[in-house]
């Protein structure tokens, strides 16, 4: 590929196109079809699984594994990004994580909860999750390399739009496969004996079971489609993006730990900036609750809401995910308008109050309509709080050319917050046997976050 200059339209579009490739993971696997498939593997009312020498509640186990993955990402991303920058081959790192994630998605086809296969199954789940978040570290780091500051907002928005369109497109196809497996070549036939001598009720029940099995098989095929989509559509991005400036340097021990040293320097500098320090503390607290709810929402809906039947459950859960995605765009816009009128901190405080109310509402809701209502509000405040939290942090940064280190610190803080939030949620779920108790407890973090936001000074204060 010819060397394209920074700001070149073709280069920018190729970068944004990676969102089209990788966003299918978050929507199809992380947010919708995999949680439904995972639950379908447990036939009894008591959903437990043996792993690592212990017996876990099904939702608690997957939450613990997710938390562990984010812990790995939090500690490895600053090290790997520092190495990539030093030796000038960030595209190779991005490729590596992309293919790890793609293989992990395809491997989910073989996911099984039996004691002999559960550990390999969880490894595939881990690979998909770490592949997505690991590749994202290097993908985001390309932005200042390929776009001028005045181009970055627009091309980031274009990437988001492409990711949304691509992921919804594949999800709709996968949903059609799951809901109407017979039209996609999946076998829903029943034995001739039942068809010939069974009662109408027996035939109907047999057909229902056959369709459910076909739907599960369709879910497994959807994991393969995600892996292939991710790997194939990434090729255009990899073809156009530059490898990076090759330095010829060898990786030494000092280079390996350079990223962590930079984070330590940011931590020292934060102590001298009271406004930024207090804001980051508040962000750390409320973000752990927000991210935890977003990651467990479908598992909660699957387990705690009375859907009536498997087909209604599948359609309802994926429908609620689409509601969240659509409303999130409106939420980000409304939050932006509110922050322009009332200020960032006041708007964040108001949004945290809404999240706190949602925790109480989630504890009480039982019907699909109540879940749809909650999904709408989650979407409304989800996009808004994420975009506003990051832009507020950007506004509070001191005058510095090393914004990369500050945002690396921000990302690591966010990931560690996710780990803590997920571990607390999984532990309460495991001990009490109810996700309702776990999600109710999260209101404490929003309350603390609100108190801490009130303590953020209006002006920058050096100490």
Q: Give the overall average pLDDT.
A: 83
Number of helices: 17
What's the overall geometry? globular
Order of helices and strands: HHEEHHHHHHHHHHHHHHH
The main pleated sheet reads as: 2 strands, antiparallel
CATH architecture annotation of the largest domain? Up-down Bundle
Written overview of the protein:
It is a single chain. With 463 residues, the protein is mainly α. It folds into two domains: 1-256, MFS general substrate transporter like domains (Growth Hormone, Chain: A), CATH 1.20.1250; 273-463, MFS general substrate transporter like domains (Growth Hormone, Chain: A, Up-down Bundle). The chain is 79% helix and 2% strand. The chain has helices spanning 9-30, 33-40, 58-87, 90-107, 118-146, 149-179, 192-197, 200-240, 253-256, 258-270, 274-304, 310-342, 344-364, 368-396, 403-432, 435-441, 443-454; strands at 48-51, 54-57. Strands 1-2 form a two-stranded antiparallel sheet. A hairpin with a 2-residue loop joins strand 1 and strand 2 (54-57). Helix 13 (344-364) packs antiparallel against helix 14 and helix 13 runs antiparallel to helix 16 (435-441). The radius of gyration is 23 Å and the shape is globular. The relative contact order is 0.14. The mean pLDDT is 83.
């Amino acid at each position: 590929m010819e060397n394209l200059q920074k700001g070149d339209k073709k280069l920018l579009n190729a970068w944004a196109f990676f969102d089209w490739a990788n966003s299918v993971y978050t929507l199809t696997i992380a947010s919708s079809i995999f949680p439904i498939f995972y639950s379908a593997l447990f036939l009894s009312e008591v959903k437990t699984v043996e792993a690592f020498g212990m017996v876990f509640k099904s939702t608690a186990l997957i939450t613990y594994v997710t938390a562990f993955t984010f812990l790995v990402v939090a500690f490895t991303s600053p090290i790997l990004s520092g190495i990539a920058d030093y030796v000038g081959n960030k595209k190779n790192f991005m490729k590596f994580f992309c293919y790890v994630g793609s293989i992990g998605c395809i491997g989910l086809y073989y996911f099984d909860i039996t004691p002999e296969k559960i550990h390999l199954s969880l490894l595939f789940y881990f690979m998909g999750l770490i592949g997505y978040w690991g590749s994202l570290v290097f993908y985001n780091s390309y932005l200042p390399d390929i776009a001028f500051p005045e181009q970055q907002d627009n091309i980031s928005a274009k990437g988001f739009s492409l990711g949304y369109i691509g992921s919804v497109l594949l999800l709709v196809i996968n949903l059609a496969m799951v809901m109407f497996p017979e039209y996609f070549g999946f076998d829903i036939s029943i034995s001739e004996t039942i068809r010939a001598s069974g009662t109408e009720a027996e035939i109907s029940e047999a057909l229902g079971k056959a369709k459910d099995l076909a739907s599960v098989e369709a879910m497994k095929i959807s994991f393969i489609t995600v892996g292939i989509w991710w790997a194939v559509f990434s090729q255009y991005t990899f073809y156009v993006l530059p490898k990076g400036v090759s330095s010829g340097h060898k990786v030494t021990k000092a280079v390996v730990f350079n990223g962590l040293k930079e984070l330590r320097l940011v931590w020292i500098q934060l102590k001298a900036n009271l406004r930024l320090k207090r804001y980051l503390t508040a962000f750390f607290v409320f973000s752990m609750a927000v991210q935890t709810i977003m990651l467990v929402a479908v598992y909660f809906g699957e387990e705690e809401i009375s859907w009536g039947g498997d087909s209604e459950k599948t359609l309802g859960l994926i429908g609620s995910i689409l509601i969240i995605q659509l409303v999130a765009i409106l939420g980000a816009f409304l939050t932006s308008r509110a922050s322009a009128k009332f200020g960032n901190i006041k708007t964040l405080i108001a949004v945290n109050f809404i999240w706190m109310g949602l925790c109480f509402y989630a504890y009480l809701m039982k019907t699909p309509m109540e879940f749809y209502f909650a999904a709408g509000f989650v979407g409304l405040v989800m996009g808004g709080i994420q975009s506003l939290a990051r832009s507020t942090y950007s506004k509070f940064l001191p005058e510095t050319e090393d914004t990369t280190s500050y945002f690396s610190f921000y990302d690591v803080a966010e990931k560690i917050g996710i780990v803590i939030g997920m571990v607390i949620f999984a532990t309460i779920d495991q001990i009490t046997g109810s996700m309702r108790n776990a999600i109710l407890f999260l209101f404490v973090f929003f309350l603390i976050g609100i108190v801490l936001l009130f303590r953020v000074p209006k002006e920058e204060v050096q100490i």
